Here is the input.
Amino acid sequence: MKKGNNMSSLQKESQLAQAQHSISHLQQAIQQAQSHHNEEILAQIQHSLDRTERSVLQAETVTDNEQAIVLIQQECRQHLAVR
Here is the structure.
């Protein structure tokens, strides 16, 4: 993994937080879809999924905290398994 050497610890933590936030949005979209099946909700899930994937990839490139990345990846997979 390529790491951003010039990024501060706070910026790296922010990327991890953004990935976690995106996963939370994905979870909310999935829960909404389970009770309301329509095209708009499905589009929201796809948007949330795309954003989550980008956030996780971005976090992977900037952080040295491998354990945090593994936890984020596991959380993301758990939510996708519900889908």
Q: What stands out?
A: The mean pLDDT is 79. The longest helix spans residues 9-35. Helices lie at 9-35, 39-62, 66-82. The chain is about 80% helix and 0% strand.
